[in-house]
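Bench notes, afternoon.
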Amino acid sequence: MTEAGDWAEIGTGWDLGARVRLAAVADWLPATTPPESQLRAVLGTAFDRWNAMTSAFARGRMLASRALLRAVVAERLGCDDSEIDIDSEPGRPPRAWRGTAPAPVAISLSHTGDAMAVAVVDSGASDVGVGVDIEASDRPIYTPAFAAAVAHPDELAQLADLDPDQLNDALIALWTIKEAVLKARGTGLTVAPRLVCVGLPTRDTASTTRNVAAPDGHRTRIGTTTHHGLRISAAHHWRNHA
């Protein structure tokens, strides 16, 4: 379970302060099911949830995603992935440990279908967060009701200025950015996406980074792009000590 599969680095030109990796589930699965000791090493606190799953695909995706997380963190820290444990519980961001101490990184995971994305950023303090979200770029999600649930009033006004054939692409981009931002801020969807305003990406900003409004004393920076039929967005959130 220590042999790394393939991944692609996303946003190499982004000024984000975080690194984003994209991988396929199949590339991170072992050819045969490993013994329980190895499964527990990879899955950590998620082992019991994995063991209770009835879907072979869901089990495979969870196993692959934890293997990817361990490998990305190990690469960031310059160690072997056998030294890394991932603590992951439903509704909470994953945390990485190196031995018995928290690893000095913040991590985030997203998946859709057979694709997985991981974001990692150095974090010497609890007030640093990272978030990543991916969706198929052709997924049909636009409805007026869903747009109203996702978009801030200022963003709804921006959507109203678009041609109908642009609405679905714009809402997918907006949705992934909101998910990434809320993950990075540590709230997830306990905060309604419509309460956070990030603005629609334009042609000029769709593959670059920019700052968005954040709570007092904090900064949030986002990057978004499309890659191989996926919309990928990432966010880095930290306290501005300057």
